[in-house]
Amino acid sequence: MTNMFLGSIAPHLLAHGSFGINTDILETNVINLAIVLGVLVYFGRGFLGNLLGTRRAAIEEAITEAEKAQADAVKALEEQQRKLAQAQAEAERITAEAKVAAERTKEAILAKSTQDVQRMREAASSDLVAEQERVIAQLRQRAVTAALEQVNDQLRSRLNSDQQRDLVDRSLALIQGGGN
């Protein structure tokens, strides 16, 4: 590289006969740029190579970590989707069971209320029959009492005390005679 540099400067020096300042801006910028690039390549090759190698390794490591994180995220997403599907299936199962349980409960309540109504009708009917029998018994009792009072009144007015004693004695004899 150095030989190349001297090779490009030497004709210039020889053409002018002396060493001096070149005022041609385009030519000097190209030469200066070539010199700077040559120095950078020569001295900076190892440093720049190490720097680029380190940067490349860091980028490759970041890419590897990003790919791993993406794979983990995909697995986590699949797991969460699986859990969501399970939860939805469980929710549907619970809903179906709740509907069945509600239908059973409804049927049980209807059956129970039907039984209760039937039992109430039977109880009302038996209460009505019992009340009728009680009223009839009361009416019979009143009729018997009224009849006995009427008979007693008639007997008092028609029988004298000797007839009453005779009637009582005969009644007692009948009762005693029937008992033997």
Q: Show unreliable segments.
A: 1-7
- N- to C-terminal distance: 167 Å
The share of residues in helices is over 70%
Quote the beta fraction. under 5%
Structure description:
Helix content is 93%, strand content 0%. The chain is an all-alpha fold and 180 residues long. This is ATP synthase subunit b. Belongs to the ATPase B chain family. It is found in: Cellular thylakoid membrane; Endomembrane system. It is a single-pass membrane protein.
Secondary structure elements and pairings:
Layout (H helix, E strand, L loop, with lengths): L1 H15 L8 H134 L2 H19 L1
Q: What labels describe this entry?
A:
single chain, ATP synthesis, mainly alpha, disordered N terminus, membrane, ion transport, 180 residues, ATP_synth_b/b'su_bac/chlpt
What does this entry show, briefly?
This protein has 180 residues and is mainly α. Helices cover 93% and strands 0% of the residues.
